[in-house]
Structure formats: C-alpha cells, structure tokens
Write a structure and sequence with these properties.
Blueprint (H helix, E strand, L loop, with lengths): L10 E4 L2 E4 L2 E3 L6 E4 L5 E4 L3 E2 L5 H6 L2 E4 L2 E4 L5 E5 L2 E5 L9 E3 L2 H10 L9
Antiparallel strand pairs: 1-2, 1-6, 3-4, 4-5, 7-8, 8-9, 9-10, 10-11
C-alpha cells in the first residue's frame, strides 16, 4: 500500500493482524506508516495490505440489509455490492453513486467525508 492513500485511524492488515494507523510519512519518496499504542512502530507501506470489505464486516458494523442494499442504521448511506466492490449511495432509493469502495479503510474515508462518526473495530 502507499502511505498517501491512508489516513490516521485507518485499519489495515500487517502480517495477518489488524492495525490502526497512527502516523504517516510520505515525503521525499518515503512510504512509511506508523502504528502502536505507546510508541510508534514504523513499517514501509508496501508490507501492508488492505482489508477487504465483506458483507459480514458490514453487518458487524451495524449495516442492515434493505431490499438490494446494505444501509447504515440511522444514517443516509447505503452500499450496493457490484462484483468485487461496493457502490456507495446517499440513500437506498437513489441511483446516484458517491464512490466505489473495496476495503475497510475506504469505508472509513467515506464515513469521515459524510460526517458520520462511527468507530470501526474488527
């Protein structure tokens, strides 16, 4: 992964463990991502993997199935599965697509952009 595509708080896979990004350094060709509770551990972003967004993860996060979409309870955001990605829509009946997402960190970005304060734990 590239550090430029991540934000502080994003969840990614590092050697089979879910980690939360706490620091980023992507200047002068660097691709460093930091994580850790007390002291940052720095790794090159290329050793990180995105976490695929699955229906099971969405259900654990409070999304509910409605007709053909999965919607976040109490919020106007719905996702429609299209092969290996999800189309984000402003609400269930809309044909508008806000964006396409495949991974948990992309869902986190979408929720932040929509002003939805939702803690994501895996």
């Amino acid at each position: 992964m590239n550090a430029k595509e991540l934000q502080i708080g994003d969840l990614v896979d590092y050697r089979g463990k879910v980690i939360e990004v706490t620091s980023l350094y992507a200047k002068n060709g660097s691709n460093e991502v930091g994580f850790g509770d007390k002291e940052d551990i720095w790794v090159n972003g290329c050793v990180l993997n995105p976490i695929p967004l699955t229906p099971e993860i969405l259900e654990r996060l409070g999304f509910e199935w409605r007709a053909y979409a999965v919607c976040l309870s109490g919020e106007d955001i719905c996702l429609v599965q299209c092969g290996d990605y999800w189309r984000a829509k402003p609400h269930q009946m809309s044909n508008d697509t806000i964006c396409r997402i495949q991974y948990v960190h992309e869902l986190q970005h979408l929720l932040r952009l929509c002003g939805i304060d939702k803690e994501i734990t895996l």
